[in-house]
């Protein structure tokens, strides 16, 4: 039995009975305590009965207790980061506040990540204290950029997304503590936007405009019950916990790089094991993120309006779509539906703000945010190449007229296998952490996917005319198209000549900054690299 933890040992007997590490038991117990508190917050400390000040105090106090219970004195790092960042938010100029906060929070996080290697080596606790620190880094940097947008920029210079979240005033100390330390997201996220959180605390998150569905008129302010969605998510949590405990022990990912396994197993066996073992890791993330989503929903946070049938949606801060991930037939679908809130954070603080090489910069930030283990950088550096190669190949075959179309079922099965295997191949170093086992695995397969990717990038052209046509198409710029575009409300939209952050870099896109959110909704998520 593994009893390593810096947190409370109160649940050590339960750890012994379950056979799970104590830090995992503490994490699960704290999350279910947070779930109970979330229900009480909605039922007994409802905004109609309780002042925002009281709700802020409850959220921050309980979050502080949970993080201390789980991580003991290591929770001090989170408090230090919070206090330092609030000091900068209070005294720094709005013109540079986002830069100072970004450097401070990312620098402090990376310092802690480096210390983890030298203090703990590669034998980490399965739930280590850097997790909450990573979430706080997301929150404070998001808030700093939103303050900068609201106080230092003209509204005409902001995208629709930035206009929505721009802050016109700095938060109070209590509001900042509640936002960064609230019990609903302190342990497993997700990262939420400050304005959405404050609207929830003050009870304004259910205010919607009057909308009609099939002749039915919904009132301007209603509060649908989250219970059906919460129970559904709890059922998913229970299923994922069983799958994780069963599969992770049966198919450990580290075995892919085991020298004896490489020498004794056939190539087909190893490829099948690679696919299964990486798939077996996913239920751990499904469990943590779905439970976190259920906690927020139980408190009344996460309402996202209504669908076309008039049913309430509770996916405002959801972090994943399990069905779309497991049935994905292209890498983009997995990226769009995995760790969605981190993807949005990367987009808002990096992708849409970096003037050159935004994709590479975003992958670099994602890797640095995750930590300093070499395996992380191997995965994310490969990810840049694999995504560009997949775009190039997809564009090529779309233009190629083969004269026949394979059966739909065959195409789906083959696409699914190729996609899932490619993701497993790229993600394995992220799980192995170290360079040596990762290189041992790749060299045993002769780096064959890496070679295919490089050949794809070298041999296939970046842009295409219609293959088989006697006249190749001249490239059309987005500026040419957007110059003719008129917004029905605001007039001409500001032109963004960089690739649309939703569409692939090589695709022609007619979306301006003002249209990015519309484009995002049409793609069912975001297309930015993430962890």
Automatic annotation (TrEMBL):
GO terms for cellular component: endoplasmic reticulum membrane. Keywords: Acyltransferase, Endoplasmic reticulum, Membrane, Transferase, Transmembrane, Transmembrane helix. It is found in: Endoplasmic reticulum membrane. Pfam families: MBOAT (PF03062). InterPro entries: LPLAT_7/PORCN-like, MBOAT_fam. The keyword Transcription regulation does not apply. This is Membrane bound O-acyltransferase domain containing 1. It comes from Eptatretus burgeri (Inshore hagfish).
């Amino acid at each position: 039995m593994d009893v390593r933890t810096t947190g409370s040992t109160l649940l050590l007997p339960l750890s012994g009975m379950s056979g799970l590490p104590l830090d995992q038991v503490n994490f699960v117990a704290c999350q279910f305590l947070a779930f109970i508190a979330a229900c009480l917050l909605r039922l007994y400390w409802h905004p109609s009965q309780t002042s925002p000040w009281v709700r802020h105090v409850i959220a921050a106090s309980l979050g502080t207790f949970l993080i201390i219970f789980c991580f003991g004195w290591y929770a001090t790092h989170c408090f230090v980061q919070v206090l330092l960042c609030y000091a900068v938010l209070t005294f720094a100029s709005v013109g540079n506040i986002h830069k100072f906060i970004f450097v401070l929070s990312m620098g402090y996080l990376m310092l802690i990540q480096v210390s983890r290697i030298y203090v703990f080596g590669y034998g980490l606790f399965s739930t280590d204290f850097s997790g909450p620190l990573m979430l706080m880094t997301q929150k404070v940097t998001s808030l700093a950029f939103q303050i900068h947008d609201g106080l230092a920029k003209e509204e005409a210079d902001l995208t629709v997304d930035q206009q929505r979240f721009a802050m016109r005033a700095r938060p109070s100390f209590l509001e900042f503590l509640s936002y960064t330390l609230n019990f609903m997201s302190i342990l497993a996220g997700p990262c939420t936007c400050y304005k959405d959180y404050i609207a929830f605390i003050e009870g304004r998150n259910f205010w919607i405009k009057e909308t009609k569905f099939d002749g039915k008129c919904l009132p301007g302010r209603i509060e649908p019950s989250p219970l059906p969605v919460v129970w559904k998510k709890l059922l998913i949590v229970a299923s994922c916990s069983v799958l994780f405990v069963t599969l992770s022990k049966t198919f450990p990912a580290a075995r892919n790089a085991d020298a004896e396994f490489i020498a004794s197993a056939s190539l087909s066996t190893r490829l099948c094991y690679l696919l299964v073992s990486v798939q077996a890791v996913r239920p751990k993330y499904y469990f943590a993120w779905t439970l976190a989503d259920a906690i927020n929903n139980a408190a009344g946070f996460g309402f996202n309006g209504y669908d076309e049938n008039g049913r309430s949606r509770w996916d405002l801060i959801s972090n994943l779509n399990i069905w779309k991930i497991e049935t994905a037939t292209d890498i983009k679908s997995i990226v769009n539906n995995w760790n969605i809130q981190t993807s949005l954070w990367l987009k808002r603080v990096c992708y849409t703000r970096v003037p050159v090489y935004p994709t590479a910069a975003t992958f670099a930030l994602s890797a640095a945010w995750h930590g300093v283990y070499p395996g992380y950088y191997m995965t994310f550096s490969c990810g840049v190449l694999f995504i560009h190669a997949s775009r190039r190949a997809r564009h090529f075959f779309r233009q190629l007229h083969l004269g026949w179309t394979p059966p739909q079922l065959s195409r789906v099965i083959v696409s699914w296998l190729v996609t899932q295997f490619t993701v497993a191949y790229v993600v394995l170093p992220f799980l192995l952490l170290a360079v040596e086992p990762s290189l041992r695995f790749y060299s045993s397969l002769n780096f064959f996917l890496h070679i295919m990717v490089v050949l794809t990038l070298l041999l296939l052209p970046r842009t295409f005319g219609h293959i088989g046509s006697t006249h190749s198409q001249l490239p059309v710029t987005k500026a040419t198209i957007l110059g003719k575009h008129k917004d029905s409300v605001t007039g001409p939209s500001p032109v963004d000549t960089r690739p649309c952050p939703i569409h692939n870099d090589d695709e022609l896109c007619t979306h301006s900054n003002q249209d990015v959110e519309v484009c995002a909704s049409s793609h069912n998520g975001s297309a930015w690299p993430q962890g």
